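Entry:
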Amino acid sequence: MGILLATIRILGLILFLFIIYTLYLMSPTSLSNEKTLFVIPLDQKQDEIIDRLISEKFIRSRAAFNFILGIIKFPGNIEPGSYMLSRRLFLWQTANLFLNHPYQKWIILVPGLRKEQVAEKIAKKFSWDEAKTKDFLSNSREGYLFPDTYLLNVDYTGKEFAQRLISNFNEKFDSQLQKDLLAQDIRNDTAIKIASLIERESGGDSDKALIAGIIWNRLNTNMKLQIDAATQYIIGTPKDWWPNVRPSDHKIDSPYNTYIYKGLPPAPIANPGLASIKAAVYPQDSDCIFYLHDHNKQIHCSVTYEGHLENIDKFLK
């Protein structure tokens, strides 16, 4: 009987110590309520995130933190972004904050999207309603929503999102680029229209300057641009913003139809990246008027229409 009682006491003591230790692991690491912005890069792994949390004294235990994460939202994966942390939070509060209350989220916007596509991607990432999406679109300007990797506040309004992207465009489209355009007597808006065409027409960065030169050659000879990407812009819908173009589509009466109207479209058709903008400012000099891309996205240009037909026969059939 005495041995049994002693065993119970020991087990009770172990249980008591375990509870005390668990409460210690769950408790705040500091009484200070100072807020810290904790930024998680896109490529940082969860183990590395937790290592940082321990080393910066936001949590005490990897195992306890992983357990609480899994209880709140299985499998408890932390999304890269930024979080407003305090060392005064209990462990479950810190875990809940990481799983449900980011301060900022990352979003990658690739070049060549039209503004509706940009709105769709941001709306999905930030769980927008229709009103917020409309707010973004009404304050957006096609061609000036700079494609980049952004870390953006989750509580931004649609207008604030648009302003952030446009502000980034203004930073990237710097004074040197504008000065070099002015030296060529070319308006900034003209360059962005051309850059948007280049972005949608190019097979990669290597051929952008050549396409820019060809577009300028057509403009300077008063030739219709006849660019399929501009027709795609006309016929694009939410189901497919860049559909395949049929010959009949080139007959649609639209100011964006470069098969009907000479000159550039009235506005950009997409949001170009910096490489396309630079190509529009610094085009490659050539005598080419026509071009095509083969099945490997390699460009082939020609001075004459006859040469273009030969390239079609050689590279596309």
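The longest strand covers residues 35-40.
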